[in-house]
Automatic annotation (TrEMBL):
Keyword Signal carried by entry: yes
Name used for this protein in its record: ABC transporter substrate-binding protein
Isomerase in keyword set: no
Assigned keywords, A-Z: Signal
Main location group: periplasm
Organism per entry: Tenacibaculum platacis
Domain Ca3427-like PBP, first and last residues per copy: 87-179
Subcellular location: Periplasm
Domain of life (superkingdom): Bacteria
Recorded family membership: Belongs to the bacterial solute-binding protein SsuA/TauA family.
């Protein structure tokens, strides 16, 4: 039996992995798939891919593109969630800042460099016409680190997925000043080159299983109630999230899409130059 480790954020996007693992669908196909939560997000997953600690990552598109350009020996094999990710822009409950414009010279908390919270802070700065070179960052590791930094005044604002942080807005830990959607599909599946070369058929099996689950995910009876309880979210928030979230439809990722994303990332100063998109993807 082939052992594979897959990593992802402990958020509602990845519940289809929980379902397929619970149903032992991988084991039935000769694959011992193990899931690892990454509360630190994309930067932590990219590091684990590089170091061979995980084989597969469900990772933010912008983060893995930048990391592959920077030398991560992995490939993107498909989109996982093709709709944008909505990044909430948060300040602490007692913050003096009232609008996004007030944040131009403020310190932004990020989970780590190269993470979504880092790269999307750059995108947000670009969208608002700020000088990106003057952005000030405070590394906080994860969502709890962001809560601590904003509460203690170690940082001024923090960007994290809108619905994951909604309970913190509801309970008064954070105030949300606005949102910044990703200008591209938000999550992709990335796999280490070594695993792709040695086990292409097993990887295809994994993809078929997860794509089959996400295809009908919204039709699962009471899925909104299940997600609401599991992720401690208001039912209406989960229903809104389900209404705007689209998973991969089984189609391969195209070079044209990745070239367009890279063009935007260059424009946002997230990467300094683009590479041939063939170096980023592997279609099985």
């Amino acid at each position: 039996m082939l052992n594979l480790k897959v990593g992802g954020v402990p958020e509602h996007f990845n519940y289809p992995w929980y379902i397929t693992l619970k149903n032992k669908e991988y084991t039935q196909n000769g694959i011992n798939l193990r899931w690892q939560d990454f509360p630190g997000g994309t930067g932590a997953m990219c590091k684990s891919l590089r170091e061979g600690e995980i084989d597969i990552a469900i990772v933010l598109t912008e983060g893995i593109i930048k990391d592959i350009i920077d030398g991560n020996p992995s490939k993107i094999i498909q989109t996982f969630v093709k709709s944008p990710l909505i990044w909430g822009i948060h300040v602490g409950a007692k913050s003096k800042f009232k609008t996004i414009d007030d944040l131009e010279n403020a310190t932004v908390a990020i989970s780590r460099y190269g993470s979504g919270s880092h790269l999307m802070a750059i995108v947000n700065a670009y969208n608002n016409g700020w000088d990106i070179d003057k952005l000030k960052f405070k590394v906080v590791k994860n969502l709890q680190g962001g809560i601590d930094a904003l509460t203690n005044g170690d940082a001024d604002y923090f960007m994290w997925e809108h619905f994951t942080t909604k309970p913190l807005v509801d309970n008064g830990t954070f105030r949300r000043l606005g949102d910044c959607p990703t200008p591209w599909p938000c999550f992709v599946v990335a796999i280490r080159d070594e695993v792709l070369e040695k086990n292409p058929e097993e990887i295809k099996t994994v993809l078929n299983i997860i794509n089959n689950c996400t295809k009908d995910f919204k039709k699962i009876v009471d899925i909104d109630k299940t997600l609401s309880v599991r992720y401690e979210q208001q039912l209406e928030d989960i229903q809104e999230w389900l209404s705007i979230t689209e998973w991969n439809d089984g189609k391969p990722i195209t070079k044209n899409l990745l070239t367009r994303i890279q063009n935007k990332m260059v424009g946002f100063n997230v990467i300094s130059e683009k590479i041939n998109s063939d170096r980023l993807i592997k279609n099985l």
